[in-house]
Design a protein that fits this description.
By secondary structure, the chain is α+β, with helices and mostly antiparallel strands. The chain is built from four helices and eight strands, in the order E-E-H-E-E-H-E-E-H-E-E-H.
Length: 152
């Protein structure tokens, strides 16, 4: 079983400048659920001024279905807009044990830095690290990671 999984059929959806209050994310995900949109790699970051960005990944074949829905939801919940990053790839690296999380992250950052690839967004748990990089450099990044993790 491979420690590395690659997905170049995803879209990064970013709700920009949502009011940072309870219930907004619930409302957004409820609407996505009603519309049978599966999401992954959910991230939210608070900004100054009581605003936050909320982002997640969807499968690329769902993009046309949700563009209008997401724009309506952003407006409904007082957001400042929504963007859709399509030229990305998501890479997941499994963490063998929680005690190796820092080591796994160091290997990921080092391998990609060695080939001058910047991570656009990253999320981790005790089981895995998932991150997004530009699709134009995805194969190169994947090869660099596979080289580092071959002996892992």
């Amino acid at each position: 079983m491979s420690l590395i999984k690659f997905n170049n059929e995803c879209v990064h959806v970013i709700f920009l400048g949502l009011p940072n209050v309870p219930g907004i994310a619930a409302g957004i995900f409820q609407e996505l659920s009603i519309n049978d949109i599966d999401v992954g790699m959910v991230t939210q970051n608070s900004m100054r001024g009581g605003r936050s960005d909320l982002s997640f990944l969807i499968h690329a074949d769902k993009l046309d279905e949700i563009i209008i829905l997401c724009r309506e939801l952003s407006s409904k919940f007082g957001g400042q807009g929504v963007s859709f990053a399509t030229e990305i790839a998501a890479i997941t690296v499994e963490i063998k044990s929680p005690s190796e999380s820092a080591q796994t992250l160091a290997k990921i950052f080092s391998a990609l830095a060695d080939v001058n690839i910047n991570i656009e967004i990253i999320n981790s748990s005790s089981e895995a690290v998932i991150f997004i990089i530009s699709s134009t450099r995805a194969q190169e990044g994947l090869k660099a990671l596979e080289k580092v993790f071959n002996s892992y």
